[in-house]
Design brief:
Elements: H1 2-19, E1 26-27, E2 33-34, H2 36-50, E3 72-77, E4 80-88, E5 116-120, E6 143-154, E7 168-179, E8 192-194, E9 199-203, E10 216-218, E11 223-226, E12 240-242, E13 247-251, E14 264-266, E15 271-274, E16 288-290, H3 298-302, E17 314-316, E18 323-324, E19 338-340, E20 345-346, H4 352-356, E21 363-365, E22 372-375, H5 379-385, E23 389-390, E24 396-399, E25 416-417, E26 419-424, E27 427-434, E28 448-454, E29 460-467, E30 470-472
Parallel strand pairs: 4-5, 5-6, 6-7, 7-8, 7-9, 8-10, 9-11, 10-12, 11-13, 12-14, 13-15, 14-16, 16-17, 17-19, 18-20, 19-21, 21-23, 22-24, 24-25, 27-30
Antiparallel strand pairs: 1-2, 3-4, 26-27, 28-29
Length: 474
């Protein structure tokens, strides 16, 4: 009778399957179950971006266990699959593409365990994001990214502040405008806040005392105005601070000196007027310091004890109206790779030998100043630098010609050759060397110049013949 019991058992199982079909999770071919409502929410959300013609065939046999498409990731909760990561946009060849007439469907916010949501180059036509629905993701979402979506316009929704579990908020190169919502201050769990490349205006909220774990803060390429808030000094974990290309003004807050872990500070192209010497030199961890394009007080900048900032790798002080001589402390920065001093009002001589001894220096820009005297860099230095050395537009700066057979030697452009002095009795002969080539390689010429000259005995002879030999090299 055992076969009767077996048949009866199979009948019960079959009946249970039929009765529970509508409420039980579906079982995929690999045995991983997924709630029907979760799958329908996912498919509907994707159709909103890719169009109704998308039917999930790329995710066959299920979107989790056998996913052959980039952009959908899942995890198990109570032995059921749930979507945890969703990336929309063609980051990879087999990513989920976005149609021009996309729309954000409400089903997107029904994904119960969504931790990461990204949109890459999806919104190309003008569209604003609704304020509603975001709160439903607040209990789980840890990463939200809008990258390269020029069609995203309007203000950033105030309800973004309800996503209190966020660790990363990236709003990069979109069309968002208006003031930054104050609710951003609620995102105290953030480790990365990137709002670069938008059209945000107004002042930066002074609430950074809540961001104790923040590592990266990038507000560059917007139209933020006012001063940098003093609470920025309480982001004690901060590694990168970039507020470049805005309209910030005034002095840097004294509290910025508290950022002992900061490795990058980029303030370029603002209207910041000072507050450096007493603060920035305290940040010994700085590797990249970019201050170009700010009308800072020259004494403030030139008063920095640069030798204390021994970890500097990139230093850009260009276009700041700096006056005085090149600070000697710069020649002590052994890790320096890039030094930009161009387009200032610097005077005095160039410490060529000291700068050349910097072992890592690979780019030096001193063009567009009032430097004087002679450049004493070696041929090896010019060969190493190539076009990464510029010294032109210094009317009273000259360069000794260096004869070289090396193809890698690039003489500094825009500098006149120095005059080499020889003394013969009481007569000083000024000899000028030039690397000019003559069309006729077989010929050379001599030129005589008649000038005034002062002899070593103090007498003036008018119309003294002063010999200057110009060698026309091939």
């Amino acid at each position: 009778m055992s076969w009767i019991h077996s048949m009866f058992f199979l009948f019960l199982v079959f009946r249970w399957c039929i009765a529970g079909e509508s409420s039980s999770p579906e079982v995929t071919d690999d045995g991983a179950p997924m709630e029907k409502s979760e799958r329908e929410a996912l498919y509907s959300a994707i159709q909103g971006f890719s169009g109704d013609s998308w039917n999930g065939s790329d995710l066959y046999p299920d979107p989790c266990g056998w996913t052959p498409i980039q952009g959908v990731s899942c995890d198990l909760y109570d032995d059921l699959w749930y979507v945890t990561d969703l990336t929309l946009g063609l980051i990879h060849e087999n990513s989920i593409s976005c149609t021009a007439s996309l729309k954000i469907k409400q089903q997107l916010f029904e994904l119960k365990h969504l931790k990461s949501l990204s949109f890459f180059n999806c919104f190309t036509s003008p569209i604003t994001i609704s304020k509603e629905d975001w709160t439903s993701l607040g209990s789980n979402l840890e990463s939200l990214e809008f990258r390269s979506n020029p069609g995203l316009i309007g203000e950033l929704p105030e309800t973004i502040g309800s996503l209190t579990k966020l660790k990363s908020l990236v709003v990069l190169e979109n069309g968002f405008n208006g003031k930054l919502p104050r609710s951003v201050c609620n995102l105290s769990s953030l480790k990365r806040l990137v709002l670069a490349g938008n059209l945000f205006t107004g002042t930066i909220p002074d609430c950074f005392n809540a961001f104790k774990d923040l590592l990266i803060l990038d507000l560059s390429q917007n139209s933020f105005s006012g001063t940098l808030p003093s609470s920025i000094g309480e982001t004690v974990s901060l590694l990168k601070l970039d507020v470049s290309n805005n309209q910030l003004e005034g002095k840097l807050p004294q509290e910025i000196g508290f950022l002992k872990n900061l490795t990058l500070l980029d303030l370029r192209n603002n209207r910041i007027s000072g507050g450096l010497s007493q603060n920035v030199e305290k940040i010994r961890s700085l590797a990249d310091l970019i201050l170009s394009g700010n009308p800072m007080d020259s004494d403030d900048v030139m008063g920095i004890k640069w030798e204390k900032m021994s970890n500097l790798v990139i230093l850009d002080l260009s276009k700041m109206g700096l006056r005085g001589e090149i600070p000697s402390g710069l020649t002590k920065l052994k890790r320096l790779r890039f030094l930009g001093l161009n387009d200032n009002e610097l005077t005095g001589t160039v410490p060529s030998k000291e700068l050349e001894t910097l072992p890592c220096l690979g780019a030096l820009y001193i063009n567009g100043n009032n430097l004087t005297g002679e450049l004493r860099f070696s041929r090896t230095f010019y060969e190493k630098m190539g076009t990464r050395f510029k010294a032109s537009k210094n009317p009273n700066l000259c360069q000794y010609d260096i004869v070289s057979e090396s193809r890698h030697y690039v003489p500094p452009l825009g500098l006149k050759p120095c005059q080499m002095k020889k003394t013969e009795g009481n007569l000083v002969i000024l000899q000028t060397l030039s690397n000019l080539k003559k069309n006729d390689e077989s010929s050379s010429s001599m030129a005589l110049m008649v000038t005034r000259h002062v002899l070593s005995n103090g007498f003036m002879w008018d119309l003294l013949l002063e010999l200057s030999l110009i060698v026309l090299l091939k």
